[in-house]
Design goal:
Elements (H helix, E strand, L loop, with lengths): L5 E4 L6 H10 L3 E10 L6 E13 L6 E7 L2 E4 L3 H13 L3 E4 L6
Antiparallel strand pairs: 1-5, 1-6, 2-3, 3-4, 4-5
Length: 105
């Protein structure tokens, strides 16, 4: 079963410079061009290129949520707290939050 993603998008493409400017202005967002994880079995460090992605740290829970920029839109998970943050970001970009099948949130 594939994961279901949500997206911040608009009719005209969101420029990476617009997205990164929002990340720079919001202290709860931090740009992360590389995601790093440790394999729990082997201890091996795994690095994955994530150009123009940002990590949002929720002030309320201190949990981290990922927003990935690709092809003029920003993709993220469907956690309710993250969706609320995405709506704030979408408003700044004059964009909408939509699901994989085009439904608006």
């Amino acid at each position: 079963m594939a994961a279901y993603n949500l997206h911040i998008k608009r009719e005209n493409e969101i420029l990476d410079s617009e997205w990164l400017a929002i990340c720079a202005q919001d202290k709860t967002l931090s740009v992360q061009h590389v995601a790093i994880a440790i394999n729990p079995q082997t201890g091996e460090k795994i690095e994955i290129s994530t150009p123009n992605s940002c990590v949002w740290t929720s002030p309320a829970s201190c949990n981290k949520y990922y927003f990935s920029y690709f092809n003029g839109r920003i993709t993220f998970g469907s956690d309710e707290i993250q969706v609320n943050k995405a709506k704030e970001i979408a408003k700044l970009l004059r964009a909408k939050v939509v699901g994989d099948e085009g439904e608006e949130y």
